Amino acid sequence: MRNHPQFTAYAALASVCFFWGTTYLGIRMALETFPPALLVAVRFTLSGSILLIGALFMGAHIPRGRELARSAGNGILLVGLGTGGLVWAETMIPSGLAALIITISPFWMVGLDALMPPRTPLHGPTLAGMAIGLGGAALLVGPGAMAGGAAGQHLILGFCILQVGCLSWSLGSMLQRRQETKAHPIVSGGVQQLAAGLAFIPVALFLQGPVHWSTRGISATLYLVTFGSIIGYSSYVFALDRLPVAMVSLYNYLNPLVAVFLGWVFYRESFGLREAAAMLIIFTGVAVVKHAEARRRKLA
What we know:
Strand content: under 5%
Order of helices and strands: HHHHHHHHHHHH
Distance between the termini: 32 Å
Helix content: over 70%
Structural class: mainly alpha
Largest sheet: none
Number of helices: 12
Number of domains: 1
Number of strands: 0
Shape: globular
């Protein structure tokens, strides 16, 4: 197995599938200490700095000029707005529910692919898969949203914030794949994380909130820096550079399973038959979209 030419890339993908699933719980715990914008700023400024210091020590190529600007811009989209949206949403909705909602993010990727050159128009099977997945999302979010009250408002707002984050993450991912760079993918990941962290410092200063120091919150933040950002995000960038997008996107199926289980264990987040049915419907819709797009590319 280790002799497989893509063994390192698959190992990186496996770490993404597990560690990113745990970050939903890590974010909820870290929010017990830091307000959302400050958490994003602290997490990615630390992780980006550590990665780039390591790259400098190893003598790796560091992007400069236009290459640096594009990597930084991708980082603000991918890490800053993408992960930042998740962090803000988790102040309103449970971590496991956030993970399930994010599962529909491939729909944004397909939609952007239809809009950005060279445009790939949507066709029947893809639209059918998207309809199935969105039906599952409606089953997941609809009853709580229709119940009204503060909880219903938070659910709707959290869902909308997550969609903005998914759109930003998908756009950043597509731009990252199209960018020609001499830098190693992990170095690019360090640039992106540092750019996102620095971009959120003024946001954190403007949206000041209370900091409640706690051992669990600090430990969760350090966990996010180490396993969510340095190991997890670097593995994602590496796998995205080495493997087909369809293969890398498998983490969309596995992350929610890990997140839902951990959310139930640590916070007793509810997960009943309706949530399980919605999850299966969403997974089915996403699978139909991926299969339809892969088949169309093969025929083309």
